[in-house]
Protein 1
Amino acid sequence: MYEPLKRILAEIVGCAPEEIPDDAQLTLLEGWDSLRHLELILALETEFDLDIQAEEIRELVSLERIDEYVRARPGMSESRGRSGAG
């Protein structure tokens, strides 16, 4: 699942997906701020057909935590996403 998440993050921060480590902490990414965080939330909602609640937004602070969150949603699997197979 990390690959689609890395692609989304890379688009937001303006780098190549392979430059984002598996243990990425969002606040440590160059140029990360609250606006980028909101961009990420909107992208996740669109890509994975999610409705992320306001109280959940502040929990999504690492690639690992985002992956766990997406996988925990009903009907999600490793390959699901609008641009992936599934």
Protein 2
Amino acid sequence: MSGADSSDRDCVEGCKLTESLVLNCPGKLDHYIPQLLTLLVARMRDAESREAEGKPMRNYCRTELMKMMCICLYYNPLGALQSLVSRKA
């Protein structure tokens, strides 16, 4: 999901797989949420830079990234918010 050569479709599929893991493993993935949010924030920032270059991210990819952030907030609200604040996201 974070590779330079990964496509928007790869990103969407990665989000769907991660969504399934997070929602089906309550209480077992707390220590992975900060790293996951780091990936999501990096991909969103990459989208902003791509847009400046004239290569915008597709809407379905941006939607999946935002949905994954919401799922992280649902899964562990306090931990997710602390992680996002610490990364100034």
Protein 3
Amino acid sequence: MDPKSHYRVVDKEKYYRKGVFEYFSKGAKCSTSMTSRIDVTDLVAYSKKTGTKFYLNFLYLLSKVMNSRDDYKMGYLWKSEELICYDQVNPTQYVFHEDTETCSPVYSVYDPDYQVFYEAAEKDIAEAKKTREYKVDETNHPNWFDASYLSWESYDSFNVELPDGYLYFPPIVNWGRYREENGRLMMPVSIRMNHAIADGYLVSLVYKLLAQEIKKFVETTPEQKRLAKELQTIANFWDSAFKEGQPSPLTAADFQPSQKLNQDILSYGKKANKALDFGAGVDLLFLEAALEGATFEGLNLDPSEAATKLHQGYIDLSKVTTLHCQKGGLAELAGLPDGSFDLIVISNVIDVLPEEETQQIVESVKRLLAPKGIFLLKTNFFIDEEMIQKRGMKLTDGKLYMDGVLRAVNRTDESWIAKFKSLTLADSYPYERIPNGPKDRCFVFRNND
């Protein structure tokens, strides 16, 4: 099975759609589908301007939308009757052969990096054109959703039916030719999902998200491209740092005597149902708490694939089933439901990122934190001029670089507190990362809404 098909088991008793799931998976087993037209005028113009293929550009944006919410990444293991959520879902393309009038399925892999996805998907199509086989391999591709272009018609309605009672959860998406309507290019898109895990709102939301992604995609500025490149450089740095790491099983005894931050995570974690560690890297903060008795459902989200894999390895070998690691950044953060976490931890992350991304994370924390929820922020120590010189750092626009990689954005305690002024500061204290070294800074915020 492809390593990208990793999933977590969803606790059906805590599932936010529990009642709907039970009714439509046991009683009225059915699907829900919709056909609507989306405006692709700007995406067509962008594709022509850049010399790229409209089909691949749309496939990339569709795949990005399907990965933006857990609702679109659900699965069902009928042997164990487990509801699951995949880390990532990928598109199954279909290549049509004019000579035989048949199709061949193409299993492409989604990558958030547009260029990586575009080039790989294009190669997949070229390879598929060499065969005439219709080879379905669901065993090794369980988390692939259907993405089929019906190039012959600009239709008004399209529907896909599956046998009654069949709990097939991957989305089935079809789209037809675009046509001009009132001076705009409108394209029909049909979406079929199982009613047990989706309703009319979630299906219709796909169209809204597609419109948003198209707008962002075609309006990307040179500055945004520069930022994306800088973020990729940071991700590559951490991938390189963690790629050789080997996980091992751990117990509570393997951790050093806890500092106040660790004690707080355990204390607040024992009262929480769901917790998020964004930019978790391999900090193992939630794992330590779980081994000490905390039972919250924890999500460790990090943009580094190597760090995510290593972190999940420690969790699996330690036989902890309540924690899950997922590769993801701002897009995945934006797809999480409002007010869904009782505890959020961000440790040594937002002060090593560009200001644009830092601000988006700040807004996400405010949105995701449940009423009375706790947010624990840890930042690096303040770097003075002497240390800048000693470490050979380069200061550019308030940002400190080492070997071309952004390593710190200096802020005072007051500045960090001000960024979260809508939350209540409950506590602050130092964190000794290195014996007798500079101390990191910890802030505890509470959502009193």
